[in-house]
Queue: 2 jobs
Job 1
Amino acid sequence: MDISQIETLRRLPVAPARHVIDGALHDASDGQVMQVVSPINGQSLTTLPRGTDADAQAAITSARCAFDDGRWSERSPAERKKVLLKWADLIEAQALELAVLGVRENGTEIAMALKAEPLSAVATIRYYAEAIDKLYGEIAPTAPGTLGLVHREPAGVVGAIVPWNFPLMIGAWKLGPALAAGCSVVLKPAETASLTLLRIAELALDAGLPPGVLNVVTGEGGTVGAAIAESMDVDVLVFTGSGATGRRLLEASARSNLKRVYLELGGKSPNVVFADAPNLDEAVKVTANGIFRNSGQVCIAGTRLLVERSIHDVFVEKLKTFSEAMTVGDPLDPATTAGAVNSQRQLQQNLEFVAEARAAGRKIVTGGTQILQDTGGYYMAPTIVTGVQPTDRLAQHEVFGPVLAVQPFDSEDEAVTLANGTDYGLAAAVWTSNLSRAHRMVRRIRAGIVHVNTYGGSDLTVPLGGVGQSGNGHDKSLHAFDKYLDLKTAWFKL
Ligand code: NAD
């Protein structure tokens, strides 16, 4: 990959985007558009269709027909695999273009975006394509004279609603297993991260995915997303985003056809550092990256640092030094370690959390401010807040920005109590040289993933999903197929 091309790619005009419905490109039924504002400089990048209810219904009808007539759902797994592998190749061939386009739209630093966006999507699609012709049904251990077969059948039409951070990675976590399983999909990207998902949907058609199997409709959550959630023709709804939207989706399911709803929601993930952490400098570096990369806009970000009191001051001092040396700024510069905040609104929300902490007497050790205003973009300095109390909003609620809340603890029990003291349960980490303690903490912390002596970086082979108000269901790994393949029993009397 020739990253010297970034400078050229960042200047290319971006044509107005269009929905991908039934294998063709469409404007909104009423012609309305929404501006795509780049967080790099606050300027308009292009426009998206402001999808209408009619657009969403057209996409759902297309997906329903495609599923029911078997053009994809009844293809052999080996045939589906072939198309999906071709799709992955086409995405890989355009990885740099896609990464730059995505960064111009959502502000993630390019070094991270390259790995976490197109290349992650490619790996995910290949993983599920390769897996689908190796999944077998079951023969039940029944009594003589009977036979019980357990088939796995594609679950039907999938509605997928995804957020603005990592649209390709999270999108592919849904699309890879859903399409491999034989489902048809209506995908609704976030308002501020739609362009790359539209592009890869076009590439899917080029790869031979039949029309109607993958539809992408852009627009507002309350219109397009709500139409998908309320539809009687959507069988499964998969979602990554905020808890507030997750609740609405569950209500919509209850009001409509009781479609299954799988939610991947937010977190307030604890990063627990014991005094016997094997390498304090490594813990400092990984802790800073675990909250400040992508300006904290990472669902599993380690937003709460719980640090043993005996090393609290020295750890915070090292963390301050490391964080202040991070390069925040132009996300298209490969040297940047934290890019832009996604939107003006998100930046405002981040600053409000800091203002509230300051007003409550908490100490802002570093950061807490908007920076690089002259660019017109949305940038925030990595922010460390100490003295945070367990009931503070900063300890309980997701900021989704580069703001770290620090709390000391004196014992393992206290660390567990603090770690488990929120409604969330997405991710966590424990830093210790004590193997027994590490295992104990993994068991005692309520989270979908507990890292030991690291933070983040888990690969596709393991599931990602939360407990508590961080959601249900899992992306990644073979377990993801459970959402898209229904079990059907055939019972024979022989
Ligand atoms: P959001 O809930 O506002 O939006 C997510 C998606 O839902 C968008 O596509 C949006 O248009 C749509 N939506 C909004 N209102 C809707 C409605 N009424 N009906 C249907 N759809 C609607 O979340 P966001 O701000 O885009 O994303 C940030 C959130 O996502 C954070 O809370 C973050 O933690 C979470 N997240 C979780 C994971 C995970 O795997 N658990 C990963 C990434 C992000």
Job 2
Amino acid sequence: MPLLDVQNLKCYFPVKSGVWGRTTGHVRAVDDVSFFIERGETLGLVGESGSGKTTIGRAILRAIQPTAGQITFDTGAAKIDLMQLKGTELRRFRRHMQMIFQDPFSSLNPRLTVRDIIAEPLVANNLVRGRKQVDALVHRTAQRCKLNLEHLRRFPHAFSGGQRQRIGIARALVSNPEFIVCDESVSALDVSIQAEILNLLMDLQRELRLTYLFIAHDLSVVAHISTRVAVMYVGQLVELAPTKRIFFAPQHPYTAALLSAIPEIKPEYALKPVPLRGEIPNPINPPAGCRFHTRCPYMEARCQKEQPAWREIAPDHFVACHFAESLSLKGIAPTAVAAAPAGESHV
Ligand code: SF4
């Protein structure tokens, strides 16, 4: 059974204008998205800025209230309908789901010591009573994240980006969650530090049987850590498949365009760039039919009128394109992504 099942998720935000603040439209940040995440896997979620990736992560954690849809979390003992949780119930349940943020500099409170930052989820949610128990958990988690215990008395400004991200990871882990949303968690780090953090996340996943939703725009990073990859475009999923399959045999023109734009591909494997014309459509007023038709090199008349169905074209491979089977799109060879960090990889 999946740990997390998301069905027909919608997150619309009102656009207000005029002196009276009348609602004149809605930003459809996430528009009818369905997927599941198996226990212990990493689902990579990629797409351009503004495609709705972070909104999905925040909606699952109920940091924002979704407009519609179903989010079911299987704790092993019970299936919890996250959309129904409110107030104290929701606060208590948050110990099962945590987030690692993008910016290790602004996501830590500069006025708290590292010990207090890591202890925050335990104290805020009343999960543990007594300083001794809190300290024991903080110490154990800090060691797991390869933080020096002497550093617990210092403040965040004394640390480098990589160390701060380890503090952020420790804060996410201290309440013993099963599910973590990694929101561009390595994007702000140097490449060598990215490798360290990715390998730490993978070690922790094996050790603690964690499940990740890994949000990123860098496909070489996603290739390294993800079991499956989902591709988003203007609030909707356009393709979802196991990592190897999505890299070697993409079936959606947008996925092929993203792959051809990876800067770190070795020259001998470089793909012919897939030209994308024009701008990303405005999510307030997305185009009719296929949302990608305004930029798609394979667009036909049908694409302008009819929205492609989200369908399974091979085991575990979902795509939303009328002509997915007939397009011969190029993928990337196994050793193509030169900048992938050292260590075990899914590609
Ligand atoms: Fe391109 Fe048409 Fe497929 Fe959309 S449905 S991706 S416009 S070919």
